[in-house]
Every structure is written in C-alpha cells, then in structure tokens.
Amino acid sequence: MKRPSTDPSSPTARRGDTLLLRHTLSGVLRMGSQLVSMMILVPLIISYLGESRFGVWALGLALVGGLSLLEMGLLQSANRFMSTIDAAQDPILFRETVCTSFWLTLPLCGILLAALPLGDLLIDWIAIPEELSTEAVSMVSILITHAALSIPLRLFPGLLISQRFMSRVHIVQGITSLLAFLLSWLALRSGAGLRGLALVHLGCMLLEHSIYIILATGVLPLSSFHPTYFSRTQLPRLSEFALFAWIGQVSNVIFLRISVFLVQGVSGVVATGAYSVASRLANISLDLSNQAVAAGGPKVTALANQPSRRQEAGWLTMSLIRRSLLFCGPLAAVALPLGYPFLYGWVGPQIATLAELPLALLVLDVVFSMPVMAATHALAVGGHHRFTNLFSILMGAVFLPAAWLLGRATAGPTGPAMASLLVTLCIALPVLLSRFSHHFEVRLSASWQLIVWPHLIPFTVATLTGTIFRILILRHVPPGRTWLFASAGAAALAAGSYILLYALRFAPEEERRALRRLIIRDTQAPVITIVPLADTASWASVRAAAQSCEASCDCGLYSSWTYAHAAWEYSGSPRAAWLITVGDPEDPAGLFFFSDRVRTQLKQNVTYLQSFDHHVMRRQPSLAPSGGQLAAIEALITARTTVHQVTGASILSLTKLLHTDAQEIQTLLHGCHIPCLIEEMGISYEIVCSEDVGAYWSTKKAKSLYNLRRAGRLLQERIGPLRVDRIRGSSWDDPELQARWVSFVDLRRRSWQLLQAVERDPAAPETMLAFDEEVIRDWASRGWLEISLLRSEDTIVAGILSCCTDQTCWVVIQAFDEAYAAYSPGRVLFAQLIDQCHADVIRRWVLGPTSDSGKRFWANRQELLVKITFPLGGWTGRLWALRQRIRQRRVPDGMRTPHQEPFLQGEQRS
Fold first, then answer.
1. Which value, in Å, is the radius of gyration of the alpha carbons in the chain?
2. Buried b (16+ CB within 10 A) or exposed e, 48-57
3. Which residues of 244-274 are buried (b: 16+ CB within 10 A; e: fewer)?
4. How far is the C-alpha of 95 from the C-alpha of 857, rounded, in Å?
5. What is the mean pLDDT of residues 850-865?
C-alpha cells in the first residue's frame, strides 16, 4: 500500500503546516516556561521547607491528579465532539454540545466540594508523619477545592482548542506558569509553607481559567451557557463516549498518580519526593512531545471520521509520531548519561541517588509511549474508543501488581518506573500498533523507515556525546552546584547534535523543505510588490508585465490591464490606484488592481482598497495563472500587514465575485482567524444549453414563445424582412468590424440607456463610449469580440455586443432603437442569436448589464454575486474587525449572518 502523496507547496498544505507549526511552537514555549519554573521552584521548596515537606507536596499534587477521576470522562467527551464541529458553520449544534457538557460537570464539582471534610481521613490513609499532618490537612483542603472548581472550568480551554485556538491557550498557560512561580517564591519567603503554595496554586488556576472564559466569548458568547440550551438529545452520545473515556482516565491515573502512593507505602516521604522529581521531569518530556500529536489531533479527528480518508489519517499519525520523538528523543538521550550529575547539582546528592535510575527508565518509557499515545488517539476518534479504553484498564490491572512487586524487590522508587516501561514495551506497543495498522491500513514495516530509522542514529550519537562528556570532563569538575550548569551545557550540546543530525541527514524531504521555507520565511512573508498608479505614465510602466501575465491566465473579460486602466480613466477623478504583484515581478503568481475609496465610519475617514467593477457582470478574484487563484488570494491575505503599511488602507474589498469563490476566500480567512463580511451585490444570470437547443426552448411558456414570434412578425411587417448581421473580428483595424462598430454606436445613442444618461449628464455618453472602445479594442485583439445587428435592408433596430470564449458567450452590451420598443427588437434578436450561436458550439451564455426582468426571461441558471470585505490593519481596521465579531455574536437564534446564508445554484431564487 503506497502512502498518499500530497503537494507541500499547495495552499492547503502550507496553511495546515503553518497552523501545526504555530501550535507546536507555542506549546514548546509554554512547556519551556513551565520547565524553567519547575527547575527553579523545586530546589527552593526543598531549601525552604525541607525534603520531607517536599514529599508531602508531591503527594498532594498526586492526590489532585487522582481526584480528576470524578470528572467521569465528560471533558474528554466534550473535547472530542467539539473538535468535529465548526462553530462558524454549525453554531447551534456547537452551542448545544458545549452547554450540555458544562451543566453535566457542575454536579461533579459540587460532589467534590462536599468531600472537603474528609481531608483528615485522606491524610491518615496516605500515612503522613504526625508532625506534618495539621499543615497537610489545610493543604489538601485547598487542593480539593482546586480540583473541584477546575472540572467545569477546564471546558473553556477545550472549547478554544477545538476551534484551532490552541496557541492562545499555550500562551496563557505559559504566562500563568511564570506568575505562579513568582508568587510561590514570595509565599515561601514569607513563611506561608505548604498552605501558601496551595493557595497560590488555586489562585493562579482561577486567573488562568478566567482568561480562557474571556477568550472563549470570541467563539461562543456566555449567553449560550443558559440552561435553556441544555439538549437532552446530546446526552446519549456524550455519556457513551464519556464512560469509555473515564475508563481510560482510570488507567492514566494508575500510571501517573498511584505510583507516587506506592513509593510512599514502600519507602517513605523522601523517596516519594525523589520519585516525584523524576516523574515530573519525565512528564514534562511527555507533555513537550505530546504537543506535536495534540496540534495535529483535530485534523486526525476530521480525517478518521471520513472512511475514504482513513488511510490518510493513519499516515498523518505516523508523521506526528516522528515529529513528537524529536522532542522526547533528545531528552532521553541526554538523561541516560547525564541524569545523575544534573540531579546532584539541582536537588542534592540524596534525592539524586534515589532518582537517577527511575529518571532513566521513565524517559525511555516516554519515548516508547509516544507511538502508543498517538495510535490510541487515532483509534479512539476513529470509532474504537471502547477498545482503547478497556485495553487501558487491562494495562492498569497488570501495572499495579507489577509495580508493587518490583517496588518491594528494589525497596525504592525504581520498581514503579521499571513496571511502567515493561508494560509499555510488552503489552501496549505490540497490541495497539497492530490494531492501528489494521484499522488505518498502514503497514507496520513502514514504521522502521518513517519513525525508527530517522531517530536511531541521532539518539545513539547524542547518548555517546553525553557519556564521553561525563567520563572525560565531568570527573574534573568539583561536585556541587557546578555540576548542574556543566551537565546542562553538555546536555544542550548533545541534544543539539541530535537535532542537527536529524534535520540535515535523516529528516524526510518534505520536512527539510518546510524547514528551508521557515528559515527564508517565504510562507510567512510572501514576496509582494506594490506599485502606485497615480498617472498615465505609471500605468504604462506596468503594462508589459501585466499583459505578459495575462497570457497564462484563465479567460476573464475584466481581469486585464486594459480593463483596469479604462475603469480608472472612466472614474474621472484623481483617485489613486494600486497594482499588487504576488511572487516574482518577472514571472508573477498573481496580479491585483485596486482603487482607493475613502468612506466615513464613526466620524472617521477610512481608506478602502476595492477592485474595479465598473460595467462588470462578474469578475475573477485576481489576475492569476490557471489554477492559481486561491494561492494568489492566500498570499495577499498573508501579506495584508505590508499592504496596509504601503497603501495606508485599512480594509480591502473584492467585488462582483461568485458566491462559491467568496466561500473559498472566507475559508482562507477563517483559517487565519480574520473576520470578514460577505454582502450581496446582485445575481449572475446564465443560459446553459445541452446539445439539443430545443430542450432549452421547451422550458419556456407557450405564451411567451407565441408573443416572441408575434413581435418578430409585426416588426417585419413594419420595416421589411429581417436578418441577423454577425461579425467576429480578430483585429480592431478590420474595416468591416469598424463599420459594424460605428453602426452599433449609432444605435446605442438612440437606446434608452444613453438617453437617460444624457438627462443626468450631457457628457456621460461620450465618456461611456470612450471606456467601451478602449476595452473592446483589447477584446477584438484577442479574437473574442462579436457584434450582432438585427436589421432590414436600410434600418438597424437592435444590436448585441458579445465576447465568445471557450464555448461561452458573454453578452456585454445590448441596445435597441427606442422607436421600435413596442416590438421587443432586443428579444427578437437574442432569440435568433441563441439558435445561431448554438450551431457554432456555444453552450453557455452569461447575460450582461441590462434589466433584471429581461435576464430572468432568458436565464435558466442564477448565481449570487457578492462582495467580500476583510481588514488589513491599523486602528480602523481593528475596530472594523471588532464590530464584525460583535455583530456575529448578536445574531438572534434561528437567523444567519450574511456570510452564512445558503444560496442555491442552478435554481430560481424566490
């Protein structure tokens, strides 16, 4: 079975890689802040409180983790289902899921708060020394309150993560970790003891989750948590998944928390503190490595729930495992040789001696646990959550007696660590990976090439580097605090050799390509060129480059330098214009022509960039090569800050787009968390014919066809026999084409459009005709232009100017003599033109600017035309974005915002 190939240069792949990279890096920074805080705080606690109280503190934290069992798996269930729903696309279902989960967790919070008087019993159960029991009871009561309040509050960071706001959660966690470290240090200095540490723990948790609540209002307003939105229909699926998630939680608590109590029962509080130090370092390695898996988790969930893309979810999981090992692999490689000197300089010789071997075993367990965790997640979200959670209980049942027996045999903290590693190697890896391989149709043999081989040699090199440093250099450094800094420097060197060797030699080509893109920043800052077009000379200077790009672009009547220049001249005002080029100016990936428009909003002049749309039926989003429209738009969105700084505009509007094109742009903006507004501008009317033109005429009412034939007959009786005079030229200098154009202009001067324009502005007709002629010259040079006239021998009564491209006829201008309006000469001409063009293999007509009643008469297909607007930057742009977010939140139930309204294609709109 071959791995599905993906194009890493495609917009979707780059956008997904950028989002994954952002989430992963923010998680690494969060874990870095927590690691720094722990590295400084643990020695401080030991020095201020002593090793015995530090062991009691470790037991208290383990107790809080154990109490998370009372969550009953509801938060995991809520996170799983929230990740499968897009809050913008299905806000009602998302609101019901979140609200129902929130109200289910509140009773659990109350049950735990009611257990506060049981603190004395807990202290007696875990055999705390009598001289520490009073302080321990106060600490445990505060930590129970912490665990109780966190149950409903943890729903809010899960809400943000489910909607791809993981980086915001990581930033908040990193900041509050540093704040907790600072406040803990102050509490220790003031002599607050264990009670003070517990209060700091509780206060920082409340602050952190208050920030999550504020951020979550950007996704879901707080009014959505009203009890009336509780949905009984959500209970079965939430409860069923929660039950098996809770079973899996039981296993996690056994592995991560019960071990501490086992060590306490065998070896006392000092050994418990030593095991806690080793366990916390290993857990930081585990959490750090899990960032890559967690960042790709929502995407794996989406793919695993689509049977046709299940194998793609399997390969993505394999890729996430390889990336996660890049975090825990270097830490394990340096912990094996350098763990003891690091611990010696950090927490002292007694704890270092007890924690050296458990640390080595636990970090190796983390390395082998990463494939297990990633495979478990993929299987759980792919419909195998019952199996994964029941299997985790089996592992817990094997681990407990093994940890107890090995703990008794080793008389220290080594036993539980050894038992955890053995359970992972002998049970979890073979069973879960084989199940994963079978379900996702991914060969296990591929894991050697994709996962093991890229990390094996770098791991060996890093371990040898640390060993050589310990044997040859560290022996000459006096023991003490200097060992901490010496071993940390050696660890950085060994870990750096691991990462460098992986990146340069063993990383897959797509990762190396992504690394190169990251270094040169071409995905974060695409190359764009912005040229002001303020006068005729500046327009002329960009003409050659623009027309060179047009040769490789899709056919678009209004996506050209000529049209943009004519529209700029037609405006008649000294309004500035801009050409934005994406990519190499010599070989551009896309061109955008914009004009400046100043509008007054909230008593401020706001500068807009808006695409030219004069006399346009509909237009393409940009002037880009075939298939590159979306990539050009994505580059423009990514470089919006640069556009704002150069042009001074705060808001950008793309006009006269098909609604389907605007939806694709909206998806790009939604992926970048940029609000947008989609407004209706009109309807594009089309005629779509099959091979049999009679099938089209059969859709018209008999009375309408009778009136059409009657009008033609009466018109012939008045002016004589009628004929359709058609000419399609390839050069504007063609004398026959010139003669038809003169006749068409003379007819248009007698049409109602120009007669009304004269009443408004006597100079308007000449300006309009000058605009038309410049654009029409360009169309003629491309071989598109066709002029059709309905005439007798001496009289021209109707005319149609159109462009024919790729079996499509664009009806640009229609005109008829107002003196013959009673005979509907325009409709008579168009009826005959449909039959003649159909014989010339024209199968589609796009109807141009004329009355909607006339277009509705002919069209059998309608599509919505819209304008999409989004902010570029600056204070006015940010205020506009804020108003859009507030407006979307205020939409009443049962109503939709403009960009969420569904529009039907190919059907009549009521």
1. 36
2. bbebbbbbbb
3. bbbbbbebebbbbbbbbbbbbebbebbbbbb
4. 44
5. 82
Q: Report the C-alpha gap between 44 and 508 in whole angstroms.
A: 43
* Two structure tokens written together for 35: 């690691």
Residue 552's CB is within 10 A of a number of other CB atoms, namely 12
Q: How far apart are CA 767 and CA 749, in angstroms?
A: 12
Return the minimum-mean-pLDDT range out of 412-416, 550-554, 653-657: 550-554
User: Residue 705: which residues within 8 A CB-CB, separation 6 or more?
Assistant: 697
C-alpha–C-alpha distance, residues 767 and 714, integer Å: 36
Q: Give pLDDT, residue 521.
A: 41
pLDDT digits (tens, 9 = 90+) for 623-639: 777 777 888 888 888 88
Distance (Å, whole) CA 490 – CA 480: 16
Note the pLDDT tens digit of each residue in 165-215: 777 777 887 788 888 888 888 888 888 777 888 888 888 888 888 888 888
Q: What is the rounded distance in angstroms from the CA atom of residue 854 to the CA atom of residue 70? A: 68
Distance, in Å, from the CA atom of 487 to the CA atom of 359, rounded to the nearest integer, reads 15
Give SS3 for 579.
Answer: strand
CA distance 187 to 197: 7
Which of 478, 345, 413, 352 has the alpha carbon at shortest distance from 51?
Answer: 352
As a whole number of angstroms, the distance between CA 754 and CA 764 comes to 8
Strand-pair category, 785-791 with 604-611: unpaired
> What would the DSSP string read from start to end of 289-303?
HHHHHHHHHHHHHHH
Answer whether 440's CB lies under 8 Å from 457's CB. no
Output the pLDDT for position 512: 62
d(CA 461, CA 458): 5
Q: What are phi and psi of 54, to 5 degrees?
A: -60, -40
| pLDDT bracket for residue 225 (50, 70, 90) | confident
Dig out the tokens for 237 from the structure.
Answer: 């699926």
